[in-house]
Amino acid sequence: MRVLVVYCHPVPESFCAALRDAAVETLTARGDEVRLVDLYAEKFDPVMQPEERRRYNDGPPADPALAPYVEQLKWAEAVLFVYPTWWYGLPAMLKGFFDRVWAMGVVFDLAPQGGIVSRVGHIRRIGIVTTCGATRFLSILMGQPGRKTILRGIRALCGARARTVYLAHYDMDRSTSESRAAFLKTVKSRLARF
Description:
Layout: E1 2-7, H1 15-29, E2 33-38, H2 50-54, H3 67-75, E3 78-85, H4 92-101, E4 108-110, E5 116-118, E6 125-132, H5 136-141, H6 145-154, E7 163-169, H7 177-191
Helix pairs in contact: 1-7
């Protein structure tokens, strides 16, 4: 399977970096072809400019800096997002990636009768590996907006039967080396079946 790993964390030595590495190693070991997008390292610009928004409904983004990301989406059969959950949602960088890359003419078109038509039906798996400062209970109470954005909104554009996986290390603010090691083990085990 062709798996695109989209990684979003500004700190190179973060626990999210260890999760990214575990994901890439596990997917590669099972025989998948893996490509990594590291939004911070690649200095991805998440800011949609006024003219870009004015032309949003005209077709694919015209910014040539977005072309490699568009090509990665066309290539992928699965997408795995590795990021920290901040304020119960997605980091701004990742949200900007969706705003600018998962765009009209790239992942969807508007149907003449209304609604949208997917252009990414070839994506059959979508997953999340994340850390949450809050507890599981508090995260659920707040509605888990990041999880819903990806596993409901983004998934709706993917293949009709796209399978999902959601792995979260909750209560990260009080994590221990043992809890992090256990979560890394869970990530490896679950992604071996992704």
